Amino acid sequence: MTEEQFDVIVVGSGGGLIGAYAAAKRGLLTLVIEKAPWIGGTTAYSGAGIWLPGNPAILRAGIEDSPDAARPYLDAIVGDDAPVELREAFLQCGPPMIAELENDDAFGEFVWRGIPDYFEGRPGFLKQGRTIFPRDIARAELGELEPLVRRPLWTERWGTEPGDVMVGGQALSARSLLAVMGTGNATVYTNTALVGLVVEGGRVVGVDAERDGETVRYRAERGVLLAAGGYERNRELRQRYQAPVTDEWTMGVPENTGDALAAAIAIGADTALLDEAWFAPGIVTPTGGPVFYTMVWGGIWVNADGERFMNERLPYDRAGHELMRLHNSTGVDHIPAHWVFDQRQVDRDGFRMLPVDPQVPDWFDVDRWLEAGVMKRADTLDELAFAIGVPAEALVRNVEEYNGFARAGVDERFHRGETPWDRVIANVVEPHTDGPNKCLGVLDAPPYYAVQVVVTDLGTKGGVRTDARARVLRSDDSVIEGLYASGNTMAPATGRVYPGAGGPIGSAMVFSWIAALDMAGEPTT
User: In whole angstroms, what is the distance from residue 135 CA to residue 72 CA?
Assistant: First the structure.
């Protein structure tokens, strides 16, 4: 068997690249192995929001914030669903991590864009938000590294050209790769899948992997960081822990089948919250599976009884959880639900706010959606109800009630349009002008349409338990020496909630950085 020796091994190349960078920058010989042909993982598909309280980019924008200011917010929304020491490590290490990254020209300065936190009314809630983003980067700046960066979701699913400028997750992945390789201490192997962990004397000392059809062993003097995403593409585990959500509905990359999770469990790692994911509503599309969608311009969602059941503009993870809760507890099918809208939606907005490149040919072609059977159209609400299999009386009654709310400007049942998040989304997709509330538009312009809403996700988030130094734990809380975890391979520091836009990536980056510093023998605070 071929063997190579390193100081640090990172499995996965999304947020794990931050750990690889931090280790390599400190002079540790670092190897990154990635199962896919490209680096970036699901991070490369994302908008690259990074939720980190009190970070330098927020402060530059003139926002008053700090770890202390955010602590009561996380305490209130997370509660006992995750250890306090994990969120304290997250709070304390986010700002210095961003400061370190910004000192490298490959990253430069991150930017704040004003996306509100997701739980209004909780102590420490920040209306201006704590989400920052990487700067865009010209594809040409990557040079010979450019082919290594994973293409956007719309390129992989629909074959469109990715464009000359990398944005969002593409930009974050590209900048992370540039920074890692710029250290001179890092090696990246793609098409290299984790097979198992090498344990000697109770300590993890390396990994076995498959590369180009050959089994190879990579040894790690300081430790192994598992940052390979969740198990969202593993059908058996999805059915066991998260039915009715399936592996076919996820937005995660195809390679995320839980290999790192299985390898850790095989040597005694404990797990938590395996029933959890970064859930989101997903519209069933003509091809390529559901696409998550949170920016509802018009219309309402109804369940199998034809009843409206929630604020359709809830932050996407909260909306996904609510769909799951109602489906599993009420005896009424809410998955799929039906998004009912009228010609205004088609004429004014289509589905342009789906995370799909607007250059996709004929993306929102009504005839294409109708022919595929994923959209229904009718001249009356009664006919639409028949087409989607819900009681006509209920659908008509719910639309009439909603229209009354829209004309009055107050959603008396579900309060759509009352939170900062609702209003920000309204500004993104254009406010309504046919009523006093820019989040509520009258639904009375036939023909009427309906598409199915299921629960998709941005990845599972249950995983191996860790301590505040990102070290993997056994069920008795003892540490598996030499083994670390971050991102969706790690049971989340934020428990069952999504605190704000960029929660997954922010946490993945921070705990990857913490792991690297621990392997380097450097304190994190």
Answer: 30
